[in-house]
Amino acid sequence: MNTQELINTARALVADDKGLLAMDESNPTCHKRFAKLGIPQTEEARRAYREWIVATPGLGESISGAILYDETIRQRKNDGTPFAQALVAAGIIPGIKVDAGAKELAGHPGEKITEGLDGLRDRLAEYAKMGARFAKWRAVITLGPGLPTRGCIEANAQALARYAALCQEAGLVPIVEPEVLMDGDHTMTRCGEVTEEVLRTVYDRLYAQRVILEGTLLKPNMVLPGLACPKQETVDEVADATVTCLLRAVPAAVAGIAFLSGGQPSELASARLNAMNVRFKSRRPWPLAFSYSRAIQQPALEIWRGDAANVSAAQKALGHRARCNRAARRGEYSAAMEKA
Ligand code: 13P
Question: What CATH fold (topology level) applies to the domain 3-339?
Fold first, then answer.
């Protein structure tokens, strides 16, 4: 492991007000989104989708790194270029999702544990050879009556820490993603309490596993009311609750924070990130960036619908969302940008 290289990569991923594109949907998740739009659920459709995303003109001006899925990093563009190489040519750092998904946690009805540690050292070495320079592992925490349990939080934090240490050993920057889900009728305050507890536990375990925080990124949820909660706070209230929680629980040494979108509407994900960067401009130790999947890709996917004739319009929509989020990093996003 070269510590300085890790730190340089982590910093590059949040430099220049850019952010990450999570194009790493597993096949079942990708198929769910394709099915809703009548797109064939085939390997070739998944490949074609990723090909036009990577070929979006100017994408590297707003996107610093892209997270690929195992299948995608092994696929090529029509001209034979592997996707990881195509990203590098576009000025984008290739990354890879390495977890094996969230499965039922034994003894904890309604809760999940992310699997994928067995054999991870060998897989990381292979991904590094294929050009990946960073990785992602997503843990999910469910809120509900009596949930989350301490057992679920601890098991997931431990797995995240073991993953992060293995990544750094292999020279890959770990993106640590503990996602507190939006599903449910919980309040924003409750989401904040749980998010803080989860983050404190995660950083305790990262410390125990000797993870170098300067060579990591955090990919958290925003602190939000549950989707079914009658009270939905304003953009500024969400920004304040989110950054307050992070300031309490995330060490200043962490290279950057790149939010997941978690199913928020695209424009709201931009507006909330923008508000955080406006309101905490001089009061935060880490860059506040984005690592969105749905909030960048969904509008473009709905235009593409599997039809080659729509690729150019879909690329325009994708580039637009990427630019909006780059503006949000600078605190320069506004609703007017959506009409331009
Ligand atoms: P969303 O932005 O769609 O939540 O996806 C982010 C992600 O990578 C989840 O692991």
Answer: TIM Barrel (3.20.20)
